């Protein structure tokens, strides 16, 4: 593992639709001396940016090639259809892919949904980007099915969106090169996973675990602990009490076990 000493800053890539604000804020609180630089990249370019060292880690959309990249799935987005506000679909709370069968659906080249076959009727040509497709929806050319975060990112006053069932969903993950799992990457993983500063998975507790055996014994109160005086006395007292009972005739405390009365047994006449 490469030490954090070789990384004076941390570069975090993120694809459109992902909002890393919460995690960046926690980073700045915990590691104020290490600047975090955000790198926005197209979804199709995110993995190459990580492989080439353009970022230390990144928020990407699954699937991820696990041969050289590690990934922690974070959440699954709702899939929505973007429509003009006066479209018939705007009158309902949710639609299915089958409900869109007679609609022209735009399928941009940077689409992030893993379709076997997009629903609806295909447009004359595929828009280059999601942003271009949004413009075409506003122009009344067709509709667009995207992850909800992208619908929010490209929000327009004349457009709205509704959830769509029976369609692929986009999953967001934190990814980084497996061979470049630095201490700073581990720190950011801890933040994303919600670990506290003193978490046992953090670097600080791990450093403490590398102390010398002498230091460990000093912190734990010594390698050997002498029994407390009270405990020794209690054990000794217990043995003495047991011995006293055995010497006085067992459970009846001085009475004969056979006759149940104290004194010597009677002689037969």
TrEMBL record:
Query: What UniProt keywords apply to this chain's record, in alphabetical order?
Result: DNA-binding, Transcription, Transcription regulation
UniProt lists compositionally biased (Gly residues) regions at 235-253
- Segments forming domain LysR substrate-binding: 10-194
**InterPro entries in the record, alphabetically?**
LysR_subst-bd
CDD domains reported for this sequence: PBP2_LTTR_aromatics_like
Family under the similarity heading: Belongs to the LysR transcriptional regulatory family.
Give the protein's recorded name. LysR family substrate-binding domain-containing protein
In its UniProt entry, the species of origin is given as Streptomyces siderophoricus
């Amino acid at each position: 593992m490469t030490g954090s000493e070789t990384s004076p800053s941390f570069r975090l890539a993120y694809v459109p639709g992902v909002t890393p604000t919460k995690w960046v804020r926690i980073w700045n609180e915990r590691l104020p001396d290490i600047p975090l630089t955000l790198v926005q990249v197209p979804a199709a370019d995110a993995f190459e940016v990580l492989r080439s060292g353009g970022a230390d880690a990144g928020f990407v959309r699954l699937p991820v090639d696990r041969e050289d990249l590690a990934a922690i799935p974070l959440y699954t987005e709702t899939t929505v259809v973007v429509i003009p506000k006066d479209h018939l679909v705007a009158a309902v709370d949710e639609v299915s892919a089958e409900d869109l069968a007679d609609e022209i659906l735009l399928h941009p080249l940077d689409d992030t949904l893993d379709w076997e076959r997009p629903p609806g009727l295909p447009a004359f040509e595929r828009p280059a980007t999601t942003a271009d497709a949004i413009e075409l929806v506003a122009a009344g050319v067709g509709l667009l099915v995207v992850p909800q975060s992208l619908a929010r990112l490209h929000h327009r006053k004349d457009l709205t969106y509704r959830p769509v069932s029976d369609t692929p969903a986009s999953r967001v993950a934190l990814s980084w090169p497996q061979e470049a799992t630095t201490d700073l990457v581990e720190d950011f993983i801890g933040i994303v996973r919600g670990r506290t500063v003193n978490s046992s998975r953090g670097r600080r507790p791990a450093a403490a675990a590398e102390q010398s055996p002498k230091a460990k014994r000093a912190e734990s109160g010594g390698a050997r602990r002498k029994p407390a005086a009270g405990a020794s006395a209690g054990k000794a007292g217990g043995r003495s009490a047991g011995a006293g009972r055995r010497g006085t005739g067992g459970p009846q405390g001085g009475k004969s076990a056979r006759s149940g009365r104290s004194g010597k047994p009677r002689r037969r006449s």
